[in-house]
Write a structure and sequence with these properties.
Elements: E1 2-6, E2 9-19, E3 28-33, E4 36-41, H1 46-60, E5 71-79, H2 106-117, E6 128-137, E7 146-153
Parallel strand pairs: 5-6
Antiparallel strand pairs: 1-2, 2-7, 3-4, 5-7
Helix pairs in contact: 1-2
Length: 158
């Protein structure tokens, strides 16, 4: 774990990048199977994405206990730019949008990752008291998408 100071909170931080296509935590649908209600995620690929994030967090947290106090969380979601944003040379057009404004929604992306980190990086996601969530496009030469995660202890003012 790295140590440092960021904004209004002191961070004993774990930082990791999880490659892949971030999937939002959508609503759940209920089905009746043999007289019992079974809930299933409505978002395709959500379970696989959460498992990928959880596995990466477990590797990064090896030898560390989950945080038990107030937690600060920074999530930066990276997606590929649409081809219409690029010149033939691969450079970004000057009039291209700087940040993604299309779906999935940032809060649903964050819910999926926060749930995946639950019990691994922090004891319970109720401990998250401050979060910064960003949606970004990958940079030229960065051909992968995913999420950069920083999680640490929060020691800020009220």
């Amino acid at each position: 774990m790295a140590h440092g100071r960021s904004g209004r909170y002191t961070v004993e931080a774990l930082t990791l990048f999880v490659p892949g296509t971030p999937r939002p935590k959508g609503s759940h649908r209920g089905f009746v199977v043999h007289g019992r209600v079974v809930m299933a995620p409505a978002s395709a690929g959500e379970r696989g994405w959460r498992e990928t994030v959880s596995a990466a967090a477990m590797l990064a947290m090896r030898g560390h206990e989950p945080l038990t106090g107030p937690v600060a969380l920074v999530l930066e979601f990276y997606s590929l730019r649409p081809k219409g944003h690029l010149k033939r040379s691969g450079e970004v057009k000057p009039n291209a949008q700087r940040r993604p404004t299309s779906k999935p929604d940032f809060d649903k992306l964050a819910r999926s990752v926060a749930d995946a980190l639950n019990g691994i990086c922090y004891r319970d996601d109720a401990y998250v008291v401050e979060a910064i969530i960003r949606k970004r496009y990958t940079r030229p030469g960065q051909p992968y998408c995913g999420v950069a995660i920083t999680v640490g202890t929060w020691d800020g003012e009220a």
